[in-house]
Design brief:
The complex is a heterotetramer of chains A (118), B (90), C (125) and D (229).
Chain A (H helix, E strand, L loop, with lengths): L1 H21 L3 H23 L25 H32 L13
Helix pairs in contact in A: 1-2, 2-3
Chain B lengths: L2 H22 L3 H21 L3 H38 L1
Helix pairs in contact in B: 1-2, 2-3
Chain C lengths: L1 H24 L3 H26 L4 H28 L12 H17 L5 E4 L1
The chains are: A mainly alpha (118), B mainly alpha (90), C mainly alpha (125), D mainly alpha (229).
């Protein structure tokens, strides 16, 4: 199962990169960025998985004494937790700038923004 | 073949299809909704990988709030475009 | 007892399956929304009741969940159908009656009588 | 022609990623760091049932602080970069069903959010998830009552006070505990109860309030953008 998740994560990352590089509409580029983000999170969580174990929450089913042999790795999960929230903030920022670009040029086509091109 | 493996393969196929729709569909609205659905299926995948915390966060933020802000921006851009068209007609 | 709960959960799953078949099968947005709301509400509630029978310790939280589903699901589909109506999504050719048009007209006339013309829409700053 | 270059670039990226896939042979046991966190004496030092919460709040607390700072910066830049020339615009009237139902639902959703971040050390959940649920209650309010006077000052004050309490509790941990963001400044309690794990529920609740206020502010900015000129 973790192999499937890892493969899917990699392909989703590639799809996001492809969308970032080939699409012409800025909204589509931002969608590609969020797809890329999701793929990265899947890869990180899949790397934390340990075969046949449960979530890192100690309760009646997971004994405190034997927790080392029963739970999956909590550290990448904690990192992904913060990464998702940061991803929302960054996406909102990108969308605001897309809106400002649209206000300047009245278009969202990336090919019409050539101000820095000599 | 355990049933978890079959479920995860099905989920993976659906997620790849969602990514394809999000990149290549003509309508931007459908593309945004497909990106949100990708997040939703990813949260089910996190649940299979025994990460319930991450699954909750992804379901609330990745597929809920980010879709909503995409739609706000899309609505804003569409209304300004409509206003300009009306001005051009005048 | 466990078997009974499992049977009820299976019944809920069958309702959900029928709902998803109807979602593909129905001709326009409004019919799809109707199928997707009624059958999924009943299916979800039945699955949760079955779960509560199997594991009685969770029944408090599950009853809260059932109340929440019963409140949110119809309201959200009502809002969706209203939005779809006002952006003029097409009906099927077999639609016969449009009651919202009539009631909206009545409401608008009444509102104009009471508050004047502006009350048709909402002014937002 | 251009697409071929892009395909080559992506293929190169894939080749870079491939060793990660090749070396991954399916973990059979925990890594060294994680098994340190999961040992009995170390779990009892923190006394939090949810190990992810323990990692987020205490062991990796500085990461959380940086994350909250980044979110604050994003919200601040969004608020700065928008002009505020609001004009009136026409909206459809919301239906009575929607308004009444949202009046009932908004307190329930907020309560669920508070429950999620209060129980972050016992069950799945925590500050970020609870904050997101709070923000979704706020967006339901914004959709149901679009001309409600949105008190953004209240949210700003909530946000800054929560940030101050977060940093202050961390500094108290450095003063009287064993280090910055130490959770043993409050009594640890018994394992698995609501009032246990020292300062973790307090810190995580304030993180949840902060995240909820920031996300609500971002959403309100996006809503107000709809009607500017």
């Amino acid at each position: 199962m973790e192999y499937v998740a890892l493969t899917v994560g990699f392909i989703v990352i590639m799809a996001g990169l492809w969308a970032i590089m080939t699409r012409k509409n800025i909204i589509r580029i931002i969608i590609g960025f969020s797809i890329f983000d999701t793929g990265l999170h899947i890869v990180m969580v899949a790397l934390a998985y340990v075969k046949g174990r449960t979530a890192p929450i100690l309760d009646n089913t997971v004994a405190l004494d034997d927790a080392v042999n029963l739970i999956v790795d909590p550290v990448p999960q904690a990192l992904v937790l913060t990464a998702i929230v940061i991803g929302l903030g960054v996406t909102a920022l990108m969308l605001i700038f897309a809106m400002k670009l649209h206000r300047e040029k009245k278009t969202l086509d990336i090919r019409s923004f050539k101000d820095l091109k000599w | 073949m355990s049933y978890l493996l079959i479920i995860s393969i099905l989920l993976g196929i659906i997620m790849l299809a969602m990514a394809g729709i999000a990149i290549y569909h003509k309508s931007q609205v459908v593309a945004i909704i497909a990106a949100g659905a990708l997040g939703l299926f990813a949260s089910v995948m996190y649940l299979l990988l025994s990460a319930p915390d991450v699954a909750m966060t992804e379901a609330a933020i990745g597929s809920g709030l980010s879709t909503i802000i995409f739609f706000y921006v899309l609505n804003r851009i569409r209304t300004t475009d409509e206003k300009e068209e009306q001005q051009l007609k005048k | 007892m466990e078997l009974f709960g499992a049977i009820i959960t299976l019944l809920g799953a069958i309702f959900l399956l029928i709902a998803s078949i109807g979602l593909v099968r129905m001709p326009d947005v409004y019919n799809r929304l109707q199928v997707g709301t009624k059958a999924t509400t009943l299916g979800t509630i039945l699955s949760l009741i079955g779960l509560a029978i199997v594991i009685p310790g969770w029944s408090g939280k599950l009853i809260l969940l059932i109340i929440f589903v019963m409140m949110t699901n119809p309201v959200s589909s009502h809002v969706l159908a209203r939005a779809a109506y006002y952006i003029k999504l097409p009906y099927t050719s077999r639609t016969v009656v449009d009651k919202l048009k009539v009631s909206d007209k009545v409401l608008n006339v009444e509102m104009e009588k009471r508050y004047g013309l502006e009350s048709k829409t909402l002014k937002v700053k | 022609m251009k697409n071929i270059f892009i395909i080559i670039i992506i293929a190169a990226f894939g080749v870079m990623l491939y060793p990660l896939f090749e070396d991954f042979s399916g973990n059979d046991e925990l890594s060294e760091l994680a098994s340190f966190y999961a040992q009995k004496e170390n779990v009892e030092k923190v006394n939090s049932a949810n190990l992810v919460t323990a990692v987020v709040v205490t062991y990796r607390g500085l990461d959380t602080l940086g994350e909250v700072t980044i979110l604050f910066l994003a919200a601040a830049i969004i608020a700065f970069s928008l002009r505020k020339h609001s004009v009136e615009r026409d909206l459809r009237r919301n239906s009575e069903i929607f308004k009444t139902a949202s009046k009932v639902l908004i307190p329930i959703i907020m309560m669920v959010g508070v429950y999620i971040f209060m129980n972050g050390h016992l069950s799945p959940g925590g500050g970020f998830q609870g904050g997101a649920v709070l923000a979704s209650a706020v967006i339901l309010m914004l959709l149901a009552f679009p001309n409600i006077p949105f008190n953004s000052k209240l949210f700003a004050y909530t946000e800054s006070i929560s940030g101050l309490v977060f940093v202050g509790l961390a500094a108290i941990g450095a003063l009287i505990g064993s280090g910055y963001l130490d959770n043993a400044i409050l009594p640890l309690g018994t394992f698995g109860e609501l009032l246990s794990a020292g300062a973790i529920p307090v810190i995580y609740s304030f993180v949840g309030l902060k995240v909820g206020a920031e996300l609500s502010n971002i959403l309100n900015e996006f809503q107000s953008v709809q009607s500017d000129n």
